[in-house]
TrEMBL record:
<protein>
    <submittedName>
        <fullName>Reductase</fullName>
    </submittedName>
</protein>
<dbReference type="Pfam" id="PF00174">
    <property type="entry name" value="Oxidored_molyb"/>
</dbReference>
<feature type="domain" description="Oxidoreductase molybdopterin-binding">
    <location>
        <begin position="29"/>
        <end position="165"/>
    </location>
</feature>
<dbReference type="InterPro" id="IPR000572">
    <property type="entry name" value="OxRdtase_Mopterin-bd_dom"/>
</dbReference>
<dbReference type="InterPro" id="IPR036374">
    <property type="entry name" value="OxRdtase_Mopterin-bd_sf"/>
</dbReference>
Length: 226
């Protein structure tokens, strides 16, 4: 058995978790799309049925929350993001622009900024199924990003937009007081314990861990499975 990353503890099941998840998940549009914007020659949209043109991929991976819990051996199904990028993003890129970051945006308004090298890792998926069934609203329906090597806040649920960036997109960063206090690391690699943008991961473990129970209770109020 591979040991868990530093500071992580396994939990039963796969909790719904996030500071904004006291609300129910967003409704799934009748015709969901993933919009491609940013430094592209022309903004475009990819309808979810178009993903069927890409090879399917299944992975078994742990999901690591930055607060310190880990859901183990989740079975994800979908398409590799690298395949999506090459099929739908590269054809609309401005050839004179060098891409450095991607911003992933969900229907719930939550976003993450991921360095291109991390987004194109072999195990990063656009997933539409988990543990043998369709993705439910609590975990990101109709489709979500899954980046197993990074903390969960990078793996945006209810994905509806990919913004292509040639530099760090400052407009996607939370500059509020709370946002600065819990500022995420730009790479958020679990094995390196990159929990925070400025503070060593081991140092903030004791502050994050007590938040697990109250945030989980708060999330339960908005769950679809109530």
């Amino acid at each position: 058995m591979v040991p868990l990353p530093p500071g992580q503890r396994s939990v039963e099941g796969f909790p719904r978790f996030g500071t904004h998840l006291h609300r129910p998940p967003p409704a799934v549009p009748d015709d969901p799309v993933i919009a491609i914007s940013g430094v592209v020659r022309k903004p475009s949209e990819v309808r979810l049925p178009e993903l069927a043109t890409l090879p399917r991929r299944e992975i078994v991976a742990d999901f690591h929350c930055v607060s310190g819990w880990t859901a183990t051996d989740l079975q994800w199904e979908g398409v590799r993001f690298a395949d999506f990028y090459r099929a739908f993003v590269e054809p609309v890129l401005d050839p004179e622009v060098s891409v450095s970051h991607l911003a992933f945006v969900g229907l719930d308004g939550i976003s993450s900024v991921v360095e291109l090298q991390d987004a194109l890792a072999d195990d990063v998926l656009l997933a539409d199924r988990v543990n043998g069934g369709p993705l439910g609203g609590d975990h990101g329906a109709p489709i979500r990003l899954v980046s197993p090597a990074q903390y969960g806040y990078m793996s945006i649920k209810h994905l509806c937009q990919v913004e292509v960036c040639s530099a760090l997109p400052a407009h996607r960063l939370d500059r509020s007081i709370i946002g600065r206090l819990i500022e995420g690391h730009p790479r958020a690699r679990v094995r390196h314990e990159e929990r925070h943008g400025h503070i060593p991961g081991w140092l903030i473990r004791p502050f994050y861990r007590p938040l697990i129970r109250p945030i989980r209770a708060l999330c339960a109020k908005g769950t679809q499975d109530r």
